[in-house]
Amino acid sequence: MKLPFRTHSVIAALGLAGAALLLPAHAQIKIAMVIPTTGPLTQYGDMVKEGVNTAVELANAAGGVAGKKIELVAVDDACEPKQGPVAANRVVNGKIGYVVGPVCSGASIAAAPIYNNEGVVVVTPSATSPALTDGKNYHFVFRTIGRDDQQGPAAAKFIAEKVKPKKVAILHDKQSYGQGIASSVQADLKKAGIPVALFEGINAGDSDYSAVITKLKSAGVDFVYYGGYHPEMGLLLRQAGEQGLKVRMMGPEGVGNPEVNAIAGPAVEGMLVTLPADFSANPKNAAVVKAFQDKKRNASGAFQLTAFAATQAILEGIKAVGDNPAKVADHLHKATVETVLGPVSWNKQGDLNAFDFQVFEWHKDGSKTPAAK
């Protein structure tokens, strides 16, 4: 299926047309970015914003969609479940029919019923919890990222086949995303015959995890998997090093944030993380990557290109059937859309039919490389 815009033909115009982005006088189609602009997880919102902004700049430079320009509206949910419905109501009251986001699983789960009931097309580039879509029969909710029950097995397979630990501890932040991915990893490690000596929740936002580190030492574990986000992972890494616990740690894409380096310091070296494949390395995306670089944005982060793809999906739907969210949702359930992730399609509950998670090794300079072991 043809893209809603061809990036190679509009890159040259981007410098001229980029200045027109977000001018209300010319915008005729509104897309909300529901992202954390406050709270401890704003970096993930920044990643999504970079991807959406770049996609919309390119689309507007090419004349928009069906002759209409696109206006972006940022709506803050702080990645908090209690703020998810508040943000959703802001979108509905603003008569916005399309959303890229929400970013975090907990906020997505809390907000999804409102979006679905009000007929707002939602494409999240980052919420991975199966609970968002399982058994819900949502017609308007989609993802451009895989689920935890795809990511968890990828992590467990790497642990079992490459790391080969003798005894594993699994920690999580007691939240929908963190506990869900931790449970998935636990289940697959048990299938692989890897003993899980400790499965325990920690309190997100705490500043001292010395008690749990003492438990890890007492249990004699030689590998730790953490389900959650980078603030807690950074502290776990740093405090484990300070207390002489020399084990390797691994986490999901929620820990793959350069801010983890500032928290963990040198102890971050060698951290393992599952992330979407590095779609920025695909030569077919060279023009898109250049558009990111021209704006001093990073196309290789965890969610920039999944957010770009979410925007592409919405714009492709509008191009195909018009500016009608119900018809766009119908279209996406049937379509295969060409995106920076490759061709994507969805099952009846809005999950991708396939997605590629890979394991990377994180370094103290903030870079990452494909993990070998």
TrEMBL record:
Does Cytoplasm show up as a keyword for this record? no
GO terms under biological process = amino acid transport
| Keyword terms of this UniProt record | Amino-acid transport, Signal, Transport
Residues annotated as signal peptide: 1-27
Give residue ranges for domain Leucine-binding protein.
28-366
Q: Which residues cross the membrane?
A: none
Q: Which Gene3D superfamilies match?
A: 3.40.50.2300
Q: From what superkingdom does this record's organism come?
A: Bacteria
Instruction: Kindly list any coiled-coil regions of this protein.
Output: none
Q: Which InterPro entries match?
A: Leu-bd (IPR028081), Leu_Ile_Val-bd (IPR000709), Peripla_BP_I (IPR028082)
- Whether Transport counts among this entry's keywords is yes
**Record family assignment:** Belongs to the leucine-binding protein family.
Name this protein carries in UniProt: Leucine ABC transporter subunit substrate-binding protein LivK
